[in-house]
Amino acid sequence: MKINNPIIRGFNPDPSIIRVEDDYYIANSTFEWFPGVQIHHSHDLKNWKLINRPLNRISQLDMLGNPDSCGVWAPCLSYCDGTYYLVYSNVRSFDGVWKDTPNYLITTKDIRGEWSDPVKLASSGFDASLFHDDNGRKWYVTLLVDHRRGKFFGGIDLQEYSEKEKKLTGPVYHIFDGTELGITEGPHLYKLNEYYYLLTAEGGTEYGHAVTLARAKEVTGPYEVHPSNPVLTARNNPKLALQKTGHADIVQTQNGNWYMVFLTGRPLTERGRCTLGRETAIQEIEWLDDGWIYLKHGGNEPGESVEINEFREIPIEPATEKDDFDSPLVDINFQSLRIPIDEEWLNLSARHGFLRLYGRESLSSFHYQSLIARRIQDFHIEASTCLEFNPKTFQQMAGLVLYYNTSHYYYLYVSTNNHGSSKHINIISCDKFITTEPLSLPVEIETTSRIYLKAELSKADLQFSYSLEIENQWKNIGPVLDGSILSDDYVKDENNRYRPAFTGAFAGLCCQDLSGQNVYADFDWFRYKEIKH
Q1: How far apart are CA 223 and CA 452, in angstroms?
Q2: Are residues 331 and 284 in the same domain?
Q3: Which residue, 126, 337, 350, 470, could crosslink 89 as a Cys pair with Cβ 3.0–4.6 Å?
């Protein structure tokens, strides 16, 4: 069976993998998108299905006001004695030297069901994980944030977790300073034979990213570094299709073989912009006689595919392209920004077969947006919708958005003039906080009841179009836009390397009412279609 990388496409970074009998699960970061943490399931390591987002209550995840690319960072999924454990950060601020990074633990007996309310662990860093030792002890391992003299990455700390007391206990051990690659983060601990192994991400989550490994006879160290570090990286080969490879986790199959999952990015051009965000890929690894892991295909560079012969392929049903909003529940592929979906602003029952969005704050808000969106997972896609909307003022808008964050998006929207007497379609481009509209627009329309909107994204080229009353009579609107600005690489502030920009491009629906009158828009359907090239 041939597995093509990445195995989980689109914005799905920081993978944490476990096996429970014949089932495999991967947890990924979600940052400011709600509910928090994506969990995918597979039987064969090739076909992965999104089954749950466990952080679905404010009691577990309060992100109101969180800046862009903060929120849920690097969850760690683990399993021990019938219980699933999930450690996660809710990063509240990240500008300047101060980093507010509270970390929490939740548990469940059913990975597809509801999870517990959280136990607060510590706020000394992020990328924390939980290691279950074979002697029954549990250890919390985390990156240490050091604000002094601009250091930031302070190495890796370890502290015991008391399940009985539901808190960290005992001394904090500083176990690893990292290698010469620096920016040491993403720690995971394992025990095999006589050694404890510490897997870390280094070099920064960009084109210098790498996976490094160290080991020790005692969990508290001292740790010696792999003789051929890094064990996985694309940092020295800009021509590889898989770039930014790092932040890994490893798993052993029921047959005794080992695999590494890791994040990767696929740039549009050589070391260019990655509009799909950071994705999840896989490689087979092996333990050699020296007691270290190596990529089975040799070297330390990622491969675009992996041959796995130990499983029978079990395909999953592909996601439906068109959502007609006939279900009383929002499709699992959709997420909201920072806050839960509730009937105060999204309603699927007020009008059967329609999704109703009540307008609230602007697309620049960190608080109460009426927006739902799904990941863009291919370089060539179409996203389209049909809406009915009767704005009464220019402060009321609704439509189709391609979104990266509050200062980078493209919005094809319907609005009106000052008095609600002349409806129109227009485009807003937001680029590094500067909002513009094409000089040739808006397109004035008669008081039509049904308006169709479409976005076609082909790598970096974005073209909007519209149709009135009848679908498929599409007319282009506005120029071809630069879709590559919807990427970490473009958004990141080069004058402040650690300003967060860690997500990916989304396509979705939104409604604003800046007048506070709570106007609504009805969306008949939403279609997301990947175009094969």
Answers
A1: 60
A2: no
A3: 126
Q: Given this model, what pLDDT does residue 448 score?
A: 77
Domain assignment present for 211? yes
CA angle 219, 225, 228 (to 5 degrees): 145
Average pLDDT of the chain, as a whole number: 95
Place of tokens 């699933």: 84
Boundary-marking domain end, from 246, 281, 307:
307
155, 8: one domain: yes
Q: Point out the residues that are catalytic.
A: 14, 185
Contact predicate 212/226, CB 8 Å: yes
Handedness of CA 293, 182, 498, 65 (dihedral sign): positive
Alpha carbon of 435 to those of 18, 259, 292, 408: distances in Å? 44, 45, 52, 9
Both tokens of 382, joined, read: 């179409």
CATH of the domain at 269: 2.115.10.20
Domain limit, last residue, from 307, 335, 370: 307
The one-character DSSP state at 148 is G
Task: For residue 414, give its domain range.
Answer: 322-530
pLDDT, position 499: 63
Q: Is residue 136 part of a domain?
A: yes
Pairwise CA distance, residues 399 & 188, whole Å: 43
- Residue 395 CB: number of other CB atoms within 10 A? 18
Count of CA atoms in the C-beta half-sphere (13 A) of 210: 22
Q: Are residues 108 and 252 in the same domain?
A: yes
Same domain, 293 and 424: no
**Domain harbouring 352, CATH code:** 2.60.120.200
- Residue 314 covered by a domain: no
DSSP for residue 361 = S
Mark whether 15 and 131 lie in a shared domain: yes
Give the contacts of 381 (CB within 8 A, at least 6 positions apart): 456, 457, 507, 528, 529, 530, 531
Q: Which of 1, 10, 47, 48 has the alpha carbon at shortest distance from 29?
A: 10
Number of continuous H segments (helices) and E segments (strands) in the chain:
1, 40
User: Is residue 11 domain-resident?
Assistant: yes
Is the pLDDT at 500 greater than 90? The verdict is: no
Query: What is the total count of domains within the chain?
Result: 2
Identify whether residues 12 and 51 lie together within a single domain: yes
- Give residue 242's pLDDT band: very low, low, confident or very high (50, 70, 90): very high
The answer to whether residues 298 and 345 belong to one domain is no
Could you check whether the bond before residue 222 is cis, i.e. omega within 30 degrees of 0? yes
Contacts 24+ apart (CB under 8 A), 46-49: 46/1, 46/3, 46/7, 46/308, 46/311, 46/313, 47/313, 47/314, 47/315, 47/316, 48/7, 48/8, 48/316, 49/316
How many CA atoms does the CB half-sphere of 314 hold within 13 Å? 12
Count how many residues are written for the chain: 533
DSSP track, 456-491: EEETTEEEEEEEESSTT--EEEEEEEEGGGSSHHHH
CA–CA distance, 350 with 178 (Å, rounded to integer):
56
Q: Based on the domain organization, do 336 and 440 belong to the same domain?
A: yes
